[in-house]
Amino acid sequence: MSYVVQRLLTFPLILLGVSILVFVSIRLVPGDAITAMLGTEAGLLTPAQRESLAAYFGIDQPVWSQYLRWLGGLFQGDLGISSIYGKPVLTVILERFPLTLQLALMSMTISLCVGIPLGVLAATRNERPSDLVVRVLAMLGQSTPSFVIGILIIYVLSVFFGFVPAMGTFTPLFVDPLASIAQLIFPAITLGFAFAASVTRISRSAMLDVLSDDYVRTARSKGASPMSVIWRHALPNALIPVVTLCGVEFGYLLGGAVIVEQIFALPGLGRLVLDAITQRDYALVQGTILFIAFNFLVVNLLVDLAYVALDPRIRIGRR
Amino acid sequence: MMHLSKNLLAGLALATALTSVSVALPAQAAELRMAWSQDATGLDPHKQTAFSSLRLLELIYEPLVRLDPELNVVPAIATEWEFAEDAKTLTFTLDPNAKFTNGAQVTSADVKASFERLLDEETAAAARSNFLSIESIDTPDDTTVVFNLSTADVPILVAMATINAAIVPASEIEAGTIGTEAIGSGPFILDSWEPNSREVLSANPDWAGGDVALDGITISVLPDEMAILASLRTGQTDFALLNDPLVATLVPNEANLQLNRVGQLAYNVLQLNPSRPPMDNLKVRQAMSCAIDRQAIIDAALAGEGVVTGPLTMPAFAQDPNSLFCYTQDLEKAKALMAEAGVDGFTAKVIAATGEPPVAASEAQVLQAQLAEIGVNLEIEMMELNVYVDTWLAGNFDMAVALNGGRPDPYPMYNRYFTKDGNLLKVSNFVDDTLDSLMKQGQAETDPAKRVEIFQEFERHLAEQAPWLWLSTSYGYTAQLNTVTGFEPSPTGTLFGLVDVTVE
């Protein structure tokens, strides 16, 4: 337990580092909220007009003073106001988060349901034709970018099925579960494609390692059925690297899937960050990145704890 | 496993198709479902300059006058207008039926307050620079407005025909709610707006301009234009705005879709920076102008979707581009000019914005190949749009591939770049006495035929001086289902034509 507390104590420090990094880097990029709003017409502004706009966007102060003001607000749970949405940053993020969470969960589920059985299949048929087919598919899945798969899916659906998933707005799960899942299933498949391929490859190689272990031979010689050897004895041990992979991927997915959200016009966290950056909504960029970093830390902590559950030999925090 | 996933896919497709049908049924026939890839960025008509913002606000607000698809000035809030003999007074008569959506009549006081807000530096309106000649505004009665100008300013009328000069309620200005509440006098009312996601508009029953056939418009933001095409193809979207010519050229392949294409005022240009050597040498600039093949750039980089243009892109002023300096490629002359200039090839950096326009990168590459013929070696630097704008405004480039906005009148279009007090002189870095005096003549001249003559001379001189190399105009595209009828596109890009649209 003390391990968890220790880890939790490092969170504020890491988040502080992230916030400084984001705060400075977004301001180092040329262009500001004024050029983002006016484009080349910004050149027509008089100095007085420019000042008035800078004051409006809160970028008239020196960077350090802007940062301190923002940090002060943070301690009171105030992430600032988004200039695009005219709403508190936290409200905007929480509106977008359900979609991102659901999309991440759905694509993880799809990847695991496809990837683990395929990996096991390939491992048990090592070097036989079915193994080769799976390996080629996995390579293909890993090396095809998601924008290709996404556009291909939309194209095939619209041309051959006369159908495209609902785009533009999102129907939350609790409003209409069926419509919500229907809307996200194809983006989830797109997103899950590459990850399913990684899962397949990792679970195949982990499975191969485990299958040559002594205890598996023991289980076999005891007369356990091949199915039971694979699924009950070998698989749980082969899953540890898959859990690590899932942790990283899930933390990553909670940051939003920029490209897939862009193609399927889903209002998730990924597009939120992208729009915030291109429109130079500083408060929104800072708040969202901080939120994503926090999620990542939490997911990593949970993954470490999951190791303990999966493998009783692992004792974290005690040296 | 493959077998299973195929069944799974088919099943899911079926399931989603079923649910989408049940969702689509209650939609009303007179509701237009529209899509575009870039959303509006704000609701203050005086401050917004982004393309999508202007297109949205044109449906909600109204200026005094607007431009029809032939770019003639036609009534909006004002029914009549008249310049005094010396072009120093401009009088408008307002439509007594014009009403804001809060129920109040649009009066001369609102006009005065709106222009005073525009001119106030606190407002930070970029369009302010077009209205600096306004000295005072008189309101003799509720429906008469008189603009007193400090100098003869004919182009000010066309400058007023944009949504950046929209008339907003004086009461809202006082309350400081312009930009947060959209109270206009236009054909539609904004019911809701989720930035970067969607807008919901309903027809304004009290609009003084006539009856709107549609009940309303829902605009969805679909960032990927291939997805917009898919959405049109399956009938989920009725009407869409397209930017990418490569996507637009796919529309005619679809039997249920129709493409509207209209030549735009905006122009693709290679801006040279005449303050940097060797571009400060007239002969070098002219050599570059002679070395490029404008039609070949259109064919290779724009998929043929464009028209060669000189500086003047508006039909009323444009002259045959072939009559301009070196508009036919002439490599021999180009090489001779380079030799005369004593420049034996050079390397220069050209900046271009990623995706803005979508063809910017390919344009830069074709230019690179063509200019290599005379020993000009271009290094292309692609930049994110905001970074590009910042660099461009600072004039911090050797050359820039740009898509610059056009105006229906040459004066507001080029005054900013090519007169001694132009506010974008830092971008053009080019001052020329002839251009300056022609610009001044064109501002004061009231006879339309004489203005055309003046600006055509301006154009010939500008092309010969070649501070920039004007390349082409592109098209603006909208695509619609065959069930949508009555939309007339305009070179300004406005979607005001939606007031006449019906959906079967």
From TrEMBL, chain A:
<dbReference type="Pfam" id="PF19300">
    <property type="entry name" value="BPD_transp_1_N"/>
</dbReference>
<feature type="transmembrane region" description="Helical">
    <location>
        <begin position="103"/>
        <end position="124"/>
    </location>
</feature>
<keyword id="KW-0812">Transmembrane</keyword>
<comment type="similarity">
    <text>Belongs to the binding-protein-dependent transport system permease family.</text>
</comment>
<dbReference type="InterPro" id="IPR000515">
    <property type="entry name" value="MetI-like"/>
</dbReference>
<dbReference type="Pfam" id="PF00528">
    <property type="entry name" value="BPD_transp_1"/>
</dbReference>
<dbReference type="GO" id="GO:0055085">
    <property type="term" value="P:transmembrane transport"/>
</dbReference>
<feature type="transmembrane region" description="Helical">
    <location>
        <begin position="284"/>
        <end position="310"/>
    </location>
</feature>
<protein>
    <submittedName>
        <fullName>ABC transporter permease</fullName>
    </submittedName>
</protein>
<feature type="transmembrane region" description="Helical">
    <location>
        <begin position="145"/>
        <end position="166"/>
    </location>
</feature>
<feature type="transmembrane region" description="Helical">
    <location>
        <begin position="238"/>
        <end position="264"/>
    </location>
</feature>
<feature type="transmembrane region" description="Helical">
    <location>
        <begin position="7"/>
        <end position="29"/>
    </location>
</feature>
<feature type="domain" description="ABC transmembrane type-1">
    <location>
        <begin position="97"/>
        <end position="307"/>
    </location>
</feature>
<keyword id="KW-1003">Cell membrane</keyword>
<dbReference type="GO" id="GO:0005886">
    <property type="term" value="C:plasma membrane"/>
</dbReference>
<dbReference type="InterPro" id="IPR045621">
    <property type="entry name" value="BPD_transp_1_N"/>
</dbReference>
<keyword id="KW-0813">Transport</keyword>
<keyword id="KW-0472">Membrane</keyword>
<dbReference type="InterPro" id="IPR035906">
    <property type="entry name" value="MetI-like_sf"/>
</dbReference>
<keyword id="KW-1133">Transmembrane helix</keyword>
<feature type="transmembrane region" description="Helical">
    <location>
        <begin position="178"/>
        <end position="199"/>
    </location>
</feature>
UniProtKB/TrEMBL annotation, chain B:
<dbReference type="InterPro" id="IPR030678">
    <property type="entry name" value="Peptide/Ni-bd"/>
</dbReference>
<keyword id="KW-0813">Transport</keyword>
<keyword id="KW-0732">Signal</keyword>
<dbReference type="GO" id="GO:1904680">
    <property type="term" value="F:peptide transmembrane transporter activity"/>
</dbReference>
<dbReference type="GO" id="GO:0015833">
    <property type="term" value="P:peptide transport"/>
</dbReference>
<feature type="domain" description="Solute-binding protein family 5">
    <location>
        <begin position="72"/>
        <end position="422"/>
    </location>
</feature>
<dbReference type="GO" id="GO:0030288">
    <property type="term" value="C:outer membrane-bounded periplasmic space"/>
</dbReference>
<protein>
    <submittedName>
        <fullName>ABC transporter substrate-binding protein</fullName>
    </submittedName>
</protein>
<feature type="signal peptide">
    <location>
        <begin position="1"/>
        <end position="29"/>
    </location>
</feature>
<dbReference type="InterPro" id="IPR039424">
    <property type="entry name" value="SBP_5"/>
</dbReference>
<dbReference type="InterPro" id="IPR000914">
    <property type="entry name" value="SBP_5_dom"/>
</dbReference>
<dbReference type="Pfam" id="PF00496">
    <property type="entry name" value="SBP_bac_5"/>
</dbReference>
<comment type="similarity">
    <text>Belongs to the bacterial solute-binding protein 5 family.</text>
</comment>
<dbReference type="GO" id="GO:0043190">
    <property type="term" value="C:ATP-binding cassette (ABC) transporter complex"/>
</dbReference>
